[in-house]
Amino acid sequence: MNPxxxxxxxxxxxxxxxxxxxxxxxxxxxxxxxxxxxGLYNQEYDYPPETILxxxxxxxxxxxxxxxxRNKMLCLTAKPNAAHKKLAELESAxxxxxxxxxxxxxxxxxxxxxxxxxxxxxxxxxxCRKCGRLYDAKYILNSKDCPVCESCGGxxxxxxxxxxxxxxxxxxxxxxxxxxxxxxxxIGGTSLAVYPAARLIDYYRGSRLxxxxxxxxPYDHRADLRIEGKIGEIFxxxxx
Length: 240
Ligand code: NAD
Hints:
The protein is built from 9 helices and 9 strands.
């Protein structure tokens, strides 16, 4: 049996699947990741994305933060691809219990997934730092320079976990619970280089840990099965 056949067989047999993914899940929807050859780390910017997307940078260079954020992180026309869609179908079929994602693009929900744990927040939620009023992503896209609140004039910040900021405790706890109980854990499209998210792999106790990636990761030796390829193409082979 080749790795993809083995993967399809395990999906068929498992009833408590959890998916944990990253930016590579959305590259086939046209959203660049950070670390692929055509990812954001390999493009020309004055600062690396990790610097621009840090709390310190946001506080000190808010205008430059928003210039990058609008250009590179707000991809509001992107549509879910085969991986997002198949994950939603697996959930509807009762086989998949949760999608845990490092992505902030909202494409899993757009595909119909209901239990989506967003470890790093979402571009679709933005709030006034002074009065708490909420704003959608379009408001940020259409505003100029640093967006401000219509009610009180306060600064608006995306509900996205920036570097140097902590993850939401409850989201982390729920993610750990789902992974601990899973009979199959599929990890796809993540370099497993961002912590503490990458550490979630340690909570899986089963024997069906599948890693799907176009390149190697520091955790390849932990996988029961490794598939090298495009996640959308691989997921589209799942038949329900
Ligand atoms: P990453 O850029 O560090 O790694 C992406 C990984 O996915 C790479 O190992 C790459 O080889 C692989 N990959 C790319 N396309 C793939 C495909 N079609 N099929 C299979 N594998 C593919 O991303 P990360 O690990 O998620 O960490 C980066 C951080 O930046 C995360 O916090 C993430 O949320 C954020 N980010 C999010 C988005 C988004 O919301 N779409 C986009 C860029 C970065």
